[in-house]
Design a protein that fits this description.
single chain; 142 residues; 5-stranded mixed β-sheet; Ribosomal Protein S5, domain 2; 35% helix; RNase_P; globular; 5 strands
Length: 142
């Protein structure tokens, strides 16, 4: 007997279905180490719950200038794999909520989790911290 949510013909892998992150409007995920290294040399703003790195992309880079790109990272200082993955899930949720409104097209952002704080702080505070960091990074003097 198959569960009611199972497909009738057995297992079906829908490979055409986009992931939750790729369905964001004009938001791509950083995956190459060189992109993370470029962001590490750019502007940064620390908050109580995360570190945010941001940089405008140059016209010579292959990715279109309209897209916002974002990357997530958590070191082993955060904890074991379960804890790191939980922290990254929270950072992805924050980026999903804030970047379509406040993020700038043609920019790369990297969100770095902090030990204890990224997981322990309430979600609303994480969102407020990320908004505040983006306002600082895109401030009037920038």
């Amino acid at each position: 007997m198959t569960p009611p949510e199972a497909p009738a013909q057995g297992i079906s892998l829908n490979r055409d279905m986009p992931s939750a992150v790729s369905s964001w409007p004009d938001i791509l995920v950083l995956q190459k180490r060189t992109d993370f290294l470029r962001a590490a040399r750019a502007r940064r703003c620390g908050t109580s719950s995360m570190l945010v790195q941001a940089r405008p992309r140059g016209p010579d880079e292959p990715v279109g200038t309209k897209a916002i790109r974002v990357g997530f990272t958590c070191s082993k200082k955060i904890g074991n794999a379960v804890t790191r993955n939980r922290a990254k899930r929270r950072l992805r949720a924050v980026a999903r909520a804030v970047l379509p409104e406040v993020g700038r097209s043609g920019w790369d952002y990297v969100l770095i989790g902090k030990p204890g704080d990224t997981i322990a702080r309430p979600y609303e505070v994480l969102v407020a911290d990320f908004r505040r960091a983006l306002v600082k990074l895109h401030g009037p003097d920038r």
